[in-house]
TrEMBL record:
Protein's UniProt name: RNA-binding protein
PROSITE patterns in UniProt: RRM (PS50102)
Signal peptide start and end residues: none
Annotated GO MF terms: mRNA binding
Record-annotated membrane-spanning stretches: none
InterPro entries from the UniProt entry: Nucleotide-bd_a/b_plait_sf (IPR012677), RBD_domain_sf (IPR035979), RRM_dom (IPR000504), SLIRP/GR-RBP-like (IPR052462)
Highest taxon above the source species: Bacteria
GO biological process, one term: positive regulation of signal transduction
Keywords: Repeat, RNA-binding
Amino acid sequence: MSTKIYVGNLPYSVTDSILESNFAEFGSVSSAKVMMDRETGRSKGFAFVEMASAEAAQAAIKALDGRSVDGRSITVNLARPREEGRGPAGYGAEGFKATRRADVGYGNGGYGGGRY
């Protein structure tokens, strides 16, 4: 079973292949992906690495967390699952809502509407 690792505070110069080669020292790397900004094509400064075993992942975390890479102290830890319902609006279990505030919207006396 593979273990996913979060790598944060990366210099923008780090690529997928550099990341993979650095983590390969500790065991088999299933994947290494630096997150890129869609609009600019530039690195967002964080990445995810998937290691083939939990032992290799723990060894990499222990060795690399806090290490300086191009003058930046990187953060390396186990990746947490993505949280559901992040952000103030969007499509959730109860359907689409423009906002979670009850006082905003048409007919409530808030912004965009009101009573006459």
